[in-house]
Design brief:
The protein has seven helices and ten strands. The chain is α/β, with parallel strands linked by helices. The chain is globular and about 45 Å long. The structure holds adenosine-5'-triphosphate (ATP) and magnesium ion. The site of adenosine-5'-triphosphate has 12 residues, from strand 1, strand 2 and helix 1.
Amino acid sequence: MPLIRVVKVTKSFREESLPVTALDSVSIEVEEGAFLAVCGPSGSGKTTLLNLIGCLDKPTSGNIYLEDDEISALGQKELTDFRLRKIGFIFQDYNLIPTFTAIENVEYVLWLQGVAPRERRRLALEVCERFGVAALAFRRPWQLSRGQQQRIAVARAVVHRPRLVLGDELTANLDHKTGQELMAFLKELNKEEGVTFLYATHDPVMMGYADKIIRLYDGRILE
Ligand SMILES: Nc1ncnc2c1ncn2[C@@H]1O[C@H](COP(=O)(O)OP(=O)(O)OP(=O)(O)O)[C@@H](O)[C@H]1O
Ligand SMILES: [Mg+2]
C-alpha cells in the first residue's frame, strides 16, 4: 500500500471575488521510502500540494490518505495532532523561533508531544550531532549562517522520527555547495532509515537527487 494517496484533489482559493484553482483534480501515489521531487513553474501548485499533504490546509474536494488515515477528513485539532506525530516540514525560510536557541528549536516538537526534558535534550542533541550542528546548539538563530539555520530546521523536522518529511524549496536560500550537502544528508537519512521525502523545487540540480519527479503545470499533473 502506498504511504500517501492523493485522490482527485482540487484546491481553490478565493482572491477577492475571483476564484483561483491552485490544484485541479490531482491524483498521485507516493510509495514508502520514496525520495520524490515536485517540480513546475511558479504558481503551478507545488506549495499548495505540500501544504495539503502536510496537514497545513484542507482540500476543496477530493481525498488524501496517509496510510489508512484519511487526513482530508480530519478536523483542525486532529490535523495538528497528526502532523505532530507523523510529519516533518522544512520551509524555505526555515521558520526557526528567534528567541529559542538552536537546540530548543529542535526540541520544540518533542515538547509539544510531552516528551520529558532529559529525553528531549538527548534526542535533539543526537540529531544535531548527526547533522554536524551540535556545536551550535546553544546559539540563537541570528548567530547562525543560512546553511547552519537550515540544518537546524532539518534536525527539527526529523527529531521526532516522522514517517514523512516535506520540504518546500528547502535549498532556495542556500548557495549550491550548501544546498547539495543538505540534499546528500537527506538522501542518507532516506536510504538508512527509510524516511519518505517529498520536496518542491525549481532547481534542476535538486531534481537530480530524486528517485521520481512529479511535474505540475497550472495545477495539473503533467505525465
Ligand atoms: N492563500 C492563497 N490565497 C489565494 N491564492 C492562493 C493562495 N495560495 C496559493 N494561491 C494561488 O494558487 C496558485 C498556486 O500557488 P502555489 O503557491 O501552490 O504555487 P507554487 O508552485 O508553490 O509557486 P512558487 O514556485 O512560486 O512557490 C497560485 O496561482 C497562487 O496565487
Ligand atoms: Mg511555492
